[in-house]
Structure formats: structure tokens, C-alpha cells
């Protein structure tokens, strides 16, 4: 049967709710108009509540990587050192950004799929006096691993000069994260993940300590956070922002508030657990030893190329799932359950994986085994 | 888990493709503009190809029932007799319409869920000389039954004064129906079924014989088919038509042509067969002895009210399925697989039915049995 529908079960861009698409298509507002200003300030307030922070939250017109760049360029000076946790592609990105801006990355290497030990992060900080920050992921999307930021934050509270900068791109909206309470000084996310909005906006939070650290003349023009902060406090942006996307994001944040952040987090936890049980019922193994609730990385069976699973899913079934990156390419495939996803989407993801694996000759299961395991889990909660 | 998405698995309105929604939201056109005229004529041509007719096809701004009324009011005169096949709620509707317009309905009663015997239709015509038409469904939606219109049409070819008027509301776009070849003189459908468009438009085809039978002064003002025919041949309508819906319908018809009518029919056949196998694997019985490809009517298990299945599906899972009508209320539930539906929607329908039945205490199956049976079928074709 030719695929007649397209479904996004990727870890971003994710599926966009009809309400958000409708908001996106409202007439474009002038970015300096009072009408837009109100929506912009409202979205910033909602983001503060999402992040559970008393600090500042800035909206940038860029991908999440833009906000990562902004963090490195605006919070560190050339010659500074920062501890960088590298346990996947996005950890590598922090290190690359440091090198780009003359910051010395002291890397804590973690086997891809494993979670960094909080004590290893603390040890790196302790053993490198003068280090100015820790750059880390909350969820390392490339491996589907969630790190223990609560414990890491607790340990770093003893190091007042060390900023904890967390890429939470696939964590905010998946988990209910008390940013301030955990001692995360700077946190980042993107519109196209659990925020259920099309790509194009990044979000960065800054607590008081982080605001104080903002440099005056960063090696950046567009990503000048001090300038943004000054403007955004007034409901303005330094340069033209993606006004339609901001309106859409505000609508998506409304939906998250209506569902309730606790319920949103609970939903993601259930969807993730069902996915894990489903793939394990197929005789497959998870890549991650500490699997994230936004995306599940599955080790492809012996002799099967994970990229072929992705290709069949998309071409024959119209469902986009993700493959592996870097050295994991071909070794894994990733099922996302992030954002505008419910139990039936998770079951669809498992069905697609089953059909694709079956076609590729992996038959160490009966068709439906993964779905059944997930259904039994859903029926039990 | 609270339902966060809404899915329509009802036999109309059905799910609307994103492309069609986009077309619907284009700026409203003036119904007498050249731009609209072109689209209107294009949609009529596409409908002719869909119906496989050399006859006329009119678009009415009404529900399908409006087109049924138009047929009775414009093709028969008070005092005429017509054979009416009554095997469900929509057969009853033909009879009610006859009585409303002073046409004498000679009913061929069929047990709900059974298909009318073609010989019974012919016998009624033969035994009632002077009868002016046969009013019938192609699919009786209330019971999920498809009648053998090919054979009925073949038998009626011997009765040149008898118009075969077929309600194909849940048949066109589900099946590839050669309207002219089968001798269907008048056929009707609605936008909100397999045509994948929101409710609001009805379609009626008229072959030459039917056009000749159109009365001059029907007991109708809005539904005056002679007047419509005159206007619509020029790309106009007698009264204001739902212009946005026509634009949307034209887009949906484009999608059907891109997929190909044969493939569309094949898809529906596969979806229907998978649904049947799925529900039977749960130990359930189909209501229909000749099940239609657009909707599957399932007999609720002993002690379970079909309406409760529908209620749980909608309230707890956000999925709208249909219950029974008239004396079947509570006795059945109906899973639609009509229009913008693929294999994963069918599996979702089975999952919802399984979850709901399970909650209601019917456990003569293991969770996932229906889904597995359907998956095995999909993997085999």
C-alpha cells in the first residue's frame, strides 16, 4: 500500500498540533507593534513557568544550536576553560563551539549511550581550578540518554564561579525540570522539539548569576545576549524575530499549560516506557543505559542496518523515524515520542519498526509482539 | 493518560488531509468570478471521472440527504411509485423522502446487515408495472453492508422506464464504480465521506435518461435540478455555493487522481479486510453478511453496550468511532476506514476497540490480538 500520510516520529522537528498550525497561519504581525509585544511578553512568561525559573528567558530566532553558540560566546571569554561532557553528538557540539570561540574545553568523555557520572563532572571541575563553567546536555539526543542534572547541579553548588549550562533541547517539555532548584544557571531549548512548534526559535534561560556573567562585547553580533536582554525585557527583540513562530509557540505553551506540566511529563514517561517495553519485546536492546523520555535509541539487530529501517519506514510507510549519527550510523534507529504524541503514535512507531524489521529479514519475533507489550503497559497504568 | 489528540474514525465526517484544509483556508472566492468558475468546472470534470460517467454531475451545497431529496423531488411526480430497498437507516430515508413528496414507496425489506437479493429488486419492479424507479443504497452505512449494484443494474436494464437511483454516499471514493456501465442512472455522494472534504457539499450524477426525466416545476425551490443543470453547465450555481468547500473538494479530488482510483479502491479493500480480521480475532462477529469497504459494523459482545465502547473511545482515548442506529443502537459499534485513512489508522481503531472492550470487562482475547491479526494481513499483501 502506498503511503498516503506523512507522520513525523523524529526527535525534531516533531508533529505540530492543529491549533499551533492555525496560530502560525494568522496574519503576520509587525515585530514592533503593541499587539506583538504583548504576545511576546506572554510567551516569555509562559517559558519562565515551563522552565520554573525566576530568571530571564530569551527567545532567539535560530535553531537550538544558535542558543548554544550564544551561551558560549556571551558567557565565556577567550582563554577561559569549561568542562564539557561529551557523550554523543551534542556533547561534541559544545566542544566545537568552545574551540570556535577560544574557550578551552576540558572534556569528560562518556561512552555513547552511557550517562555521565555526576562525580566525574565534579572531579573535572575540582581538578581544574579556575574552570568557568560546565557545558552539558540534559538529554543527549543522539543516544537517547538522560543525565542526572539534579545530582550534578547539587554537586556544583559548591563551586560558585562555575556556571552550569545545560542543553535541554530535548528535555524541556518532556520532563518537568525545576531549573532554579537544580542549580542550572543557563538552559536552552528549541521550538521544534517538545514545544510542538515548527523549527526556527530557540530559548535560553539565564539566572541572576548568568546575567552577571554576560560579556559586554561578545565575539558575536546577532547572538548578543546583553542586547537581547535589554530589548526583550521591553517586549522587543534586537533584530526582526520570527513573529508567526512566536505566536505559534505561545499557542503551544498554552496547550502545555492546559494539559499541565506534571501531566505532560507523566505522559512522556508513559510513552517512553511503552516504547522501551515494545522494542524489548522484539528481542532488541536499548542503546542507552539511562534512557531518556523524549526519544528511544534502539540497537539494530545483528546484520540489519539501522539506516535501512529508517529508509523503509519513510519510503514504504510514510513515517519518519531517525537513524544514528557519527559512529552510531547504521547501528541504531531512534523512535521519538516527544511533543504532540500520544499512545497511538507510539504504537504506530512500533508497528512501523516491526514491519520494517520484518521486511529486512529480522524475524526473531511474531508481528505484533512489540505492540502487544506496549498495549499491555498502557492498559496497566 | 488524558487524550491529547482527536481522531475521527467515524463514517463521516472523516479525517481531512492537510492539503485539503489548506485549500479550505484559501481566501474566499466570489461565486460568480471567473477564477471560481474555472475551479468549479474542474471539480465537476474530476467528479465525472470519479463516477466514470459521461453524464452530468452537479455539486449541491447541502448534506448528502439534500441530494437524496433533490432526486426524489426532481425525478418523480406525486402519485408515482418507486421500489425502495430498506435494509437500514438510509433505506428508510428513501422511503421517508418518497412519502414527503407524494411518491408511493414499494419497499423491499431486508434484514439489517443482509444484502438485498438482486432478484428481489427485479421481482418488485416486475410485479409493480408502471413503477418509475428503484431507490437504493450502494453501501448501507448503518449496517456496513454493500449491495450488488452491478447485478441489480444488469437486471434493471430490461426496464427502460425504471430509473436506478443509488445513494453512493459511502461508496464513491471507496470503490471504483463504473456508474454508466452498471446502469446507475442517478448516483449521489457527499463531501465528508471518502471524498476527504469537510461536510457541506453533496454530489449528484444524472445520465441522459435521468436528465430527460427532470421535472419542470419540482416541489422544491432550492433543490431544483433543472435550474442547477442549466447554471452548472456554465460553471455557475443557482444560488450561492460553499466556495471554500468547492476549492477544498477540488484539491481532494486531485489527491484521489494522484493516488489513482484503482489504488484508492485497493487501499480501502485492504483496510477493510484488515479491520474485519482484526475484530474477528477478538472473538467478535461482523453485523454484515456482505461487509462494505468503507465501514465495518461489529456486533458488541454479549453483555456489552456498543454505545459504551463508543463513549470510552471518545472520552478516554480521543478517538471517535460510531455506534448503532435505530434498533441496532447499543448492539453494535462501527469502525470507519474511509477516506484519508491508512494502515496505521486502522490499527489505531483496533487498539481503541481493544482498550475499550477490555475496560468494559470483555476479555475473551489477549490485548493486541486484533492488532496482530491486522498486522499479519498487512504484511502479507
From TrEMBL, chains A, B:
The modification N6-(pyridoxal phosphate)lysine is found at residue 193. Residues 10-326 form the Aminotransferase class V domain. One of its GO terms (biological process) is glycine biosynthetic process, by transamination of glyoxylate. Keywords: Aminotransferase, Pyridoxal phosphate, Transferase. Substrate binds at residue 334. GO terms for molecular function: alanine-glyoxylate transaminase activity; L-serine-pyruvate transaminase activity. SUPFAM superfamilies: PLP-dependent transferases. Its cofactor is pyridoxal 5'-phosphate. Pfam families: Aminotran_5. It comes from the Bacteria. Signal peptide: none annotated. Belongs to the class-V pyridoxal-phosphate-dependent aminotransferase family. This is Aminotransferase class V. It comes from Thermovibrio ammonificans (strain DSM 15698 / JCM 12110 / HB-1). The lineage of its organism: Bacteria, Pseudomonadati, Aquificota, Aquificia, Desulfurobacteriales.
Amino acid at each position: 500500500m502506498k503511503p498516503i500520510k506523512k507522520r513525523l516520529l523524529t526527535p525534531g522537528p516533531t508533529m505540530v498540533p492543529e491549533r499551533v498550525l492555525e496560530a502560525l497561519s494568522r496574519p503576520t504581525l509587525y515585530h514592533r507593534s503593541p499587539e506583538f509585544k504583548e504576545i511576546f511578553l506572554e510567551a516569555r512568561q509562559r517559558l519562565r513557568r515551563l522552565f520554573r525559573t525566576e530568571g530571564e528567558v530569551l527567545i532567539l530566532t535560530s535553531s537550538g544550536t544558535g542558543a548554544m553558540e550564544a551561551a558560549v560566546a556571551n558567557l565565556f571569554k577567550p582563554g577561559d576553560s569549561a568542562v564539557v561532557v561529551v557523550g554523543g553528538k551534542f556533547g561534541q557540539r559544545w566542544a566545537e563551539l568552545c574551540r570556535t570561540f577560544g574557550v578551552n574545553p576540558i572534556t569528560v568523555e562518556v561512552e555513547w549511550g552511557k550517562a555521565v557520572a555526576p562525580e566525574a563532572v565534579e572531579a573535572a571541575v575540582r581538578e581544574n581550578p579556575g574552570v568557568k563553567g560546565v557545558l552539558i546536555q540534559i538529554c543527549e539526543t543522539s543516544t537517547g540518554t538522560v543525565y542526572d542534572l539534579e545530582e550534578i547541579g547539587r554537586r556544583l553548588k559548591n563551586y560558585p564561579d562555575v556556571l552550569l549550562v545545560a542543553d535541554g533541547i530535548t528535555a524541556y517539555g518532556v520532563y518537568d525540570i525545576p531549573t532554579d532548584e537544580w542549580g542550572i544557571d543557563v538552559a536552552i531549548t528549541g521550538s521544534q522539539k517538545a514545544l510542538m512548534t515548527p523549527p526556527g526559535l530557540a530559548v535560553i534561560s539565564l539566572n541572576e548569576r548568568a546575567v552577571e556573567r554576560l560579556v559586554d562585547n561578545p565575539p558575536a553580533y546577532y547572538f548578543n545576549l546583553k542586547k537581547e536582554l535589554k530589548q526583550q525585557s521591553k517586549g522587543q527583540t534586537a533584530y526582526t524575530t520570527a513573529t508567526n513562530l512566536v505566536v505559534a509557540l505561545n499557542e503551544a505553551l498554552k496547550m502545555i499549560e492546559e494539559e499541565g506540566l506534571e501531566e505532560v511529563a507523566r505522559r512522556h514517561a508513559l510513552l517512553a516506557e511503552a516504547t522501551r517495553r515494545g522494542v524489548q519485546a522484539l528481542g532488541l536492546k536499548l542503546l542507552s543505559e539511562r534512557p531518556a523520555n523524549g526519544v528511544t535509541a534502539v540497537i539494530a539487530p545483528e546484520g540489519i542496518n539501522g539506516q535501512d529501517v529508517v529508509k523503509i519506514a519513510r519510503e514504504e510507510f510514510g513515517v519518519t523515524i531517525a537513524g544514528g549519527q557519527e559512529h552510531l550510523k547504521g547501528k541504531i534507529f531512534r523512535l521519538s515520542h516527544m511533543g504532540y504524541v500520544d499512545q497511538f503514535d507510539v504504537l504506530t512507531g512500533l508497528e512501523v519498526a516491526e514491519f520494517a524489521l520484518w521486511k529486512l529479514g529480522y524475524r526473531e519475533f511474531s508481528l505484533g509482539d512489540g505492540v502487544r507489550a506496549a498495549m499491555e503497559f498502557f492498559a496497566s497504568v
